[in-house]
Amino acid sequence: MKGKYKAAIALVLLLILLPLTLLMTLAQWVPTIAGIWLPVGTRIALEERPRFTRLSLIIPDLRYWVDDCQLAWLQNAELTRPSRWQLHVGTLTINSACLNKLPANDAPSTAPRTLSEWQSMLPYTWLTVDRLTVSPWQSWSGKLSLALTPEVQHLSYNGGRVQLEARLQGQALSVNRLALHLFDNQSPFTLGGEFTLPAVPNGWPVNGQMQSTITLPQQPGLVDVDMEWRDNQGQTIVMSRDSSDPLLDLPWQVDDEQLAINDGRWNWPYAGFPLSGHVGLKIDNWQQGLDKAQISGRLNVLTQGKAGKGNAVLTIGPGRLSMIDSAMPLQLTGEAKQGDLVFYAVLPAQLSGSFDEPQLTFTPGALLRSRGRVIDSLNIDEVRWPLAGVKLTRQGVDGRLQAILRAHDNVMGDFLLHLDGQAQNFLPDNGEWCWRYWGDGDFTPMNARWDVAGRGQWQGNTITLTDLSTGFDQLQYGAMQISAPRLVLDAPVKWVRDEKKPKFSGALVLDAGQTTFSGGSHLPASQLKFSVDGANPTDFQFKGALSANVIGPVQVNGRWDGERLRGQAWWPRQSLSVFQPLIPPDWKMKLLDGSLYAQVAFSAAAGQGFEAGGHGVLKSGSVWTPDNEISGVDFVLPFRYRNAAWQLGTRRPVSLRIGEIVNQVTAKNITADLQGSWPWSEENPLILSDVSVDMLGGKVTMQQLRMPQHDPALVRINHISSSELISAVNPKQFALSGPFDGALPLWLDNPQWIIKDGWLHNPGPMTLRIDKDTADAVVNDNITAGSAINWLRYMEISRSWTKIDLDNLGVLKMRAAIRGTSYVEGKSSTVNLNYTHEENVFTLWRSLRFGDNLKSWLEQHAALPQVRCAKGEKCEEKQ
């Protein structure tokens, strides 16, 4: 009995120790046993030992290898059975590149063939994978959940770029929601539908119907997608809710060997101009997988503009698309027309690479051309983009980039520009693009030829203009000619396109030779140097200085914010004599003394136009000419310019003060103030006020002249010396002495009058003397007038009143009434003289023959009263 007990105890211990031993050595024997059923060349590796808990089996790490390629990697798996089997996986990573290494199995398969057979084998199971990743599509990773029974299978997948909710019951597949985030910052592509799967799940669903509402990039509204098929043919229609024509209409047929789209139509009205066309596509061997499928097709694009209709054709294949390495020839041939522009394309290319890293390479002969009209006056004769050898990848553009532009403007002239550069994996703010540019042309409005040349690069997020030289051989406009102006870089222009610390900087110099004007005046060679500093080309500050030999420098600074240009300019105090070169030699004017300074603030914007405001000051100016000597000139000009109108005098009026003008008549203490708008209006008049001139021993004043004018401006003449006036005019026929006053109502915009109802009179005694030779000539020529003219040889005028009218044709009418006493040969007589005179003053100013005119009038109209005088008695007038 003791032997039996020992045997029983040993059996019990064996039954206990054997499972423990097997459990402890799972990592060694499970891969070996599993290898019996795995394909040849594949194996399972357990990096960590699985372990049991009271309710679950935990597998920390399991890997499935095909030769030396890791096909699948399972981490943190836990198998439990609360009510049915439940497998929870932390991470499952599948490498699709290893699928090609699986060995082919030519032995007859005993696996189930029909869908129902597969479903009948399914256990009641829940499967959850927290993160499922299939390379090389890591961006499509997400969480997978399966609820499986033989009757119904539920699938849920939730990732950053794809979400799926589906249910399979028998052959009926219901897709509740499929959402694909294809484009950043765009709504996802979503769809749902009902499908009937084939009994043997090795092909396309037998029947199906799918509906979706999506939002396409750059499309303003919602788009409905309807897809329906039965047996081997169907139709896909994409409709926009704001259009009656489908965006896409694809009738298709499918069989075991080929998927074909015949006579498909498409329409895209959202690209700024309508596009439409037809499409045909064939995919042979489509059931053998994407790598073995042969794809060919044809897509044409119809366009229409002012230049007519255009047709371009995209030929696809025959070739293949592959997850690993595609080989698809493409060629775009034809023309497209938009507005007045016509584009011509011959673009053969080869699409290669994987889906994740596609590469489009333009082959020899690839050329894009265009011609037409961009704006009303600019005509593109031809622009060429040679593209042979250029590669397009996800990293960017690689290869030689060229452009040649030949154009002309009916007014501005013609020009030719070249661009040539090399790109290396270039995209905006990524990669590198170095370029150089050059060109020349005519600038017809100013009878000039111009040229431009330079170099630059775009490296990473930095654009640098390293070299620039552009200018004209001359600029000629009217009587002005500028010699050889040229703009060059003083320091490279650099733009760092950094979101946190953007930077834009550079310096330029504009040099110009001598500027000549009509009459021989000139501006010496000038130079404008300025620098820019800011965040980007739409947000920077600038400062600089403009000088022309000894003129200047004028300091300029300001800011450009992308919409408005603001700035200030300061002209420092300078001697007036530095502007002598601007005075034509024919003027024979010498700038002697004085100083000038100015300050201006300006602003310019698209909707606003140009605005400026500031002031200029001239102090103690002095000018000499052969006929005039002007001294003591003080001029202050505050102004504002806006909406093509000048506001003269802002906080205070424009002020002119002149100490003295020495001419035939010397004028002193000249003052005038000006304030208002130019051009003027009723709401914004222009007012000249406080005009005053000391001249001819008296003063001429005008209190106010308003434009537009409703009342005459009254010019007052106060105590003007007639003798000084006669001396200035210098007639030889007569002499006049004594003061006179007057008032001249002045009109500037009256349809008839310049002066209306003006008057002159003498506030004190005046004396008139007729030249003896003049009087004797009258006596000899006209005996009747001779006796009367003798009484005017010397006359003392006690009272005179003259009425003056001057029309806008220059006709002056004077009606004078003179009363005085004449003294001739010791005799005196009271004289009443009524004088009427009419003459064109414009002619008079030119001739200055006032004395001869008076002589002629006296000969014709002199008639004096008879006088009787007894010897030794006082003479009396006979009434």
UniProtKB/TrEMBL annotation:
<dbReference type="Pfam" id="PF11739">
    <property type="entry name" value="YdbH-like"/>
</dbReference>
<dbReference type="InterPro" id="IPR021730">
    <property type="entry name" value="YdbH"/>
</dbReference>
<protein>
    <submittedName>
        <fullName>Dicarboxylate transport</fullName>
    </submittedName>
</protein>
